[in-house]
Design a protein that fits this description.
This is Cbs domain protein, putative. Keywords: CBS domain. The structure is a single chain. With 155 residues, the protein is an alpha+beta fold. The chain has one domain: CBS-domain. The chain is built from six helices and six strands; from the N terminus they run H-H-E-H-E-E-H-E-H-E-E-H. The strands form two sheets. A four-stranded mixed sheet has the order 1-2-3-4. The mean pLDDT is 93. The structure holds adenosine-5'-diphosphate. The site of adenosine-5'-diphosphate (ADP) has 16 residues, from strand 3, helix 4 and strand 5.
């Protein structure tokens, strides 16, 4: 393997790959649902991160396993505390679009030390305000699965 050639099968496959090619369906929770219900959703949907949406259905935050565990071990009332109070909030959310490369997505996951990115489309409201519509999620698992399938094809 010559890592400098930039012309290997792996390099070519990766540079062309787009988020829309490997993304998963979105899993979202309303800001108003309880920490308890968010935990239940993580189990039933088998995900580690939820996109959180406002009353209009637009992205307002992201909540991870540890965000929820923090409340559980600090004695917060998981039945009363809404995820909106414990999530990481916009505009501090790292996202990708369906046409972004998976390489860009992977770099964002590493740079920001996170496990998942909401895949979004920008929706401009009549008053000019921009809102993000959640159309999928891209996780480390998607990338690992692609990597394994690529190897399966070549071996
Ligand atoms: P965990 O906290 O379960 O280890 P992550 O490493 O993905 O999961 O999350 C670390 C922190 O970063 C959490 O506080 C979470 O809310 C936040 N976070 C996760 N994903 C994103 C994202 N796409 N954009 C901004 N913040 C995020």
């Amino acid at each position: 393997y010559n890592g400098r050639s930039g012309n290997t099968l792996v390099a070519r496959a990766i540079s062309k790959l787009r988020v829309k090619d490997i993304k998963s369906l979105p899993v979202v929770a309303r800001e108003t649902v309880s920490v308890y219900d968010a935990v239940v959703t993580m189990f039933t949907e088998d995900v580690g991160t939820l996109s959180v949406v406002d009353g209009d259905g637009y992205l307002s935050g992201v909540v991870s396993r540890k965000d929820l565990l923090k409340i559980a071990i600090s004695g917060g009332d998981v039945h009363k505390m809404p995820v909106g109070m414990v999530m990481t909030r916009m505009p501090n959310i790292i996202t990708v679009t369906p046409d972004d490369t998976v390489y860009l997505a992977a770099k964002r996951l590493i740079t920001h030390q996170i496990d998942a990115l909401p895949v979004v489309r920008t929706f401009v409201q009549p008053n000019g305000q921009e809102r993000l519509e959640v159309v999928g999620r891209l996780t480390k698992t998607n990338i690992t699965r692609f990597f394994v399938e690529l190897a399966n094809d070549e071996l």
